[in-house]
Design the sequence.
């Protein structure tokens, strides 16, 4: 009776387990040093060799030639375990034997010594399917089994296994097998089996296998049955449901050239061949990904998923821009997600192709706009050049007009000096600290009330002096000060918020930073002139020295 390729070529030694060297090497060293443990957990995607490695390990620990790194597959123990005639190696499918009673039966039989080989090995496949009660029943036995028992647990979903089980095992994570390793193994199997094939056909099958050797051999088996004498690229594409590379080139070129009829015609032909719309969207994403990869890293040819380096592909890759590829992949990815929840996947795909073609037309409009902008810039440069030729006359006119402009500029904003003097006369450090301590609350309150523009005016402002009735607000820029002080609504809202926060009715006056220094100096000089000259003559030398060091505005006098 005919047997499937994956059954005939199931690994019988660690060397046959492809792409899992990090696991096989560790197990081989443990076998040679006779440091095997009582429980193992093999986790990883399907078809990566977990159960095969478990059976190989079971043969190796029971081989008559122990200690060895590989089972000999010649002694009676190895042959018996391979054909299943030795009852001491028990394979259990946890998907169908997931109850407490089955695990209790294992727990009761564990204590009996093996009949034919040194170790009794329990291989529990898909162990994550066990019930909570079954896991609890397995706990104690798994932690302290008899010396002649080894447990090997295999699973594709380790996150479903309780941590109490995982902590009692040595865990080995099997990874997805690379397409290159899968092609190498399939090539060896096809050669040994006398199969005729095209090299590219094996690459297509390997990419469709999703990192699983068993899936790849199943697809190869199917392709052999579909083909007549030789497995061709078209046979592999038909079996895997992938889209022909020629179709991808044709659609990619149509999208780039904005040829909507050509793109939809190619899609129609694919749908008539029975291709799955979701699979086609995935193939198209991988195709554009390969173009991007080829443009940015041409030396990584082995990383290409769907493309083949023919003339059509390389020409398109040279012409298309990376920014366009980013947009293509974004639209295709969004379409692929929408197709999962729709009964009209083909319609989504057709709309997606139209969108992809229309992206280019938008870019053409942008290019035209840029050209017009360049023309305007050139015109402005010519005008600027003409103005520079007449620069002396312009300078004379500007000099004649500058006094007027300066006078007008000085009248743009005038500080309320009367209010500033009143505040400075009664100003204290405590009042200033009080206002500063609530300044952050004021800004937060303005932002929370959707008054970000008002809050922005105060970003570069800070209280400079304060009295019990008001404070001086120093602005870094004069334009901000002018905008704030001439906006009565802003003044009212800010005063109301400050009254809510501090409990006081405070008025404030804005002063630009460059004017503030001058106003403060004038006020200090007036204060000195109004003071008692005798006190100035007999002033304490310590106070004079302190004023020289830190400035008069930072010193507070107390009798």
Sequence:
């Amino acid at each position: 009776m005919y047997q499937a390729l994956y059954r005939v070529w199931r690994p019988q030694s660690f060397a046959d387990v492809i792409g899992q060297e990090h696991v096989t090497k560790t197990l081989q060293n443990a076998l040679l040093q006779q440091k095997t443990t009582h429980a193992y957990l093999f986790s990883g995607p399907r078809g990566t060799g977990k159960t095969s490695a478990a059976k190989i390990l079971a043969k190796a620990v029971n081989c008559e030639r122990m200690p060895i790194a590989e089972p000999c597959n010649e002694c009676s123990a190895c042959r018996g375990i391979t054909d299943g005639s030795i009852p001491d190696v028990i394979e259990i499918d946890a998907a169908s034997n997931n109850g407490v009673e089955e695990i209790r039966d294992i727990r009761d039989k564990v204590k009996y010594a093996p009949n034919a080989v040194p170790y009794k090995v329990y291989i529990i496949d898909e162990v994550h399917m066990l019930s909570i009660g079954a896991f609890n029943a397995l706990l104690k036995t798994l932690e302290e089994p008899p010396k002649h028992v080894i447990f090997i647990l295999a699973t594709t979903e380790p996150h479903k296994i309780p941590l109490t089980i995982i902590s009692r095992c040595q865990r080995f994570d099997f990874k997805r097998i690379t397409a290159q390793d899968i092609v190498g193994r399939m090539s060896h199997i096809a050669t040994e089996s006398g199969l005729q094939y095209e090299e590219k056909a094996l690459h297509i099958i390997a990419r469709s296998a999703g990192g699983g050797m068993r899936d790849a051999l199943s697809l190869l088996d199917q392709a052999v049955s579909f083909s007549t004498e030789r497995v061709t690229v078209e046979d592999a594409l038909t079996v895997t449901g992938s889209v022909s590379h020629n179709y991808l080139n044709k659609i990619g070129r149509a999208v780039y050239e904005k040829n909507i009829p050509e793109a939809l015609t190619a899609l129609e032909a694919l749908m008539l061949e029975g291709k799955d719309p979701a699979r086609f969207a995935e193939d198209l994403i991988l195709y554009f990904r390969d173009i991007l990869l080829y443009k940015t890293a041409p030396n990584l040819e082995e990383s290409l998923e769907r493309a083949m380096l023919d003339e059509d592909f390389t020409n398109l890759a040279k012409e298309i821009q990376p920014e366009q590829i980013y947009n293509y992949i974004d639209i295709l990815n969004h379409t692929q997600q929408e197709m999962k929840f729709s009964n009209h996947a083909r319609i989504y795909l057709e709309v997606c192709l139209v969108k992809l073609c229309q992206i280019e037309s938008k870019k053409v409009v942008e290019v035209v706009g840029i050209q017009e902008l360049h023309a305007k810039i050139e015109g402005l440069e010519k005008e600027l050049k003409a103005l520079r030729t007449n620069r002396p006359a312009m300078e004379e006119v500007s000099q004649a007009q500058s006094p007027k402009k300066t006078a007008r500029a000085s009248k743009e904003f005038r500080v309320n000096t009367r209010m500033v003097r009143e505040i400075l006369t009664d100003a204290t450090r405590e009042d200033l600290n009080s206002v500063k301590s609530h300044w952050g609350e004021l800004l937060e309150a303005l932002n929370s009330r959707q008054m970000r523009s008002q809050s922005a005016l105060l970003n570069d402002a800070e209280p400079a002096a304060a009295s019990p009735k008001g404070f001086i607000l120093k602005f870094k820029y004069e334009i901000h000060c002018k905008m704030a002080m001439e906006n009565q609504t802003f003044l009212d809202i800010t005063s109301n918020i400050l009254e809510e926060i501090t409990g006081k009715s405070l008025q404030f006056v804005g002063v630009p930073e460059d004017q503030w220094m001058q106003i403060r100096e004038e006020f200090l000089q007036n204060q000195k002139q109004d003071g008692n000259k005798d006190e100035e003559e007999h002033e304490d030398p310590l106070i004079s020295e302190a004023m020289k060091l830190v400035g008069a505005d930072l010193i507070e006098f107390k009798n």
Summary: Residues 348 and 506 are 63 Å apart (CA to CA). Confidence is low (pLDDT under 50) at residues 402-410.
